[in-house]
Amino acid sequence: MGVLSGILSALLGVGGAVVTTPAVRFMGATPIEAVGSTVPAILPGAVSGSWRYAKEGLVEWRTALGLGAAGTLFAVGGAVLSDVVDGRVLMVLTAGLMLWSGVSVARGGRRGPAPDPAAPTTTAPPAGAEAATTTVLRDVPRHSLGTIGALGAVAGFVAGLLGVGGGIVMVPMLTGPLKFPVRAATASSLVAVAIFSLPALVTHAVLGHINWFFASALMIGVVPGAQLGASLTIRSSERTIRLAFGAFIVLLALVFAATQVLAGR
pLDDT tens digit string along 138-182? Predict the structure, then answer.
């Protein structure tokens, strides 16, 4: 599950806990452990994927740092609030958020955007890759720091509250209303996830929400998974990434919700 989490983390910049939270819950963790135990694996996965994207020049640093800075304080607030909210409510919120994120991203792929000039057509590095990368960043619209900060604050709060990394909020908003190319959104979101996952991790650890048996196992697999996920994103078309991600997250949300209902707890 750690490897799969790392792949998904870097594949669309979502932190990976959308996979590990329901998986850890299914394997016997309490609801609050399912939230807290996924957080330690978010940081190494996000750092690993961010490093790969930075090497490719795909990070829009103004957006990434703005999101991360705004989300840091709110990540702590969300983690503190999770200590007083019923864990079953957090599980329901997680399933709902996953469903919204998957549908939002998949709709963008179904609309069939114009061909992405950065998308290679083979698995080998394309000629002119540096120019293609420059085109991706050139197509990033410039938004006010207030807009970026507001999105970062919401994502950070959700990351702390549900332990899902925050990218599940940022990526649909960046690729939807804010009109970012999917690669720039993925790379920038993952940098922000790395920044505000640290205070969320510390807070959940202090509050005793982390089962380190689950957390350690996830951390082992997440780094190689993140490298693979970043490679897949760099080499795939935007439409493919959107549709595959959306379908997977929607399916996972429905399975997770059904599991919670059947468990009755």
Answer: 777 788 889 999 999 998 898 888 877 677 788 888 888 888 888
Note the maximum CA span of the chain: 55
CA terminus-to-terminus distance, the chain: 23
CA distance 62 to 145: 9
Sequence-separated (6 or more) residues with CB below 8 Å from residue 257 = 92, 95, 99
Task: Look up residue 34 and give its amino acid.
Answer: A
CA atoms within 13 A on the CB side of 226: 31
Q: DSSP label at 164?
A: S
Place of tokens 């549900």: 162
Instruction: Measure the CA–CA gap between 48 and 242, rounded to whole angstroms.
Output: 22
pLDDT of residue 136: 64
Closest Cα to residue 4, out of 241, 217, 204?
217
Contact criterion met (CB below 8 Å) for 13 and 55: no
CA–CA distance, 21 with 255 (Å, rounded to integer): 13
Separation between Cα atoms, residue 31 and residue 43, nearest integer Å: 21
Residue range 73-98: mean pLDDT, rounded: 83
User: How is residue 226 annotated by DSSP?
Assistant: H
State the pTM of this model: 0.74
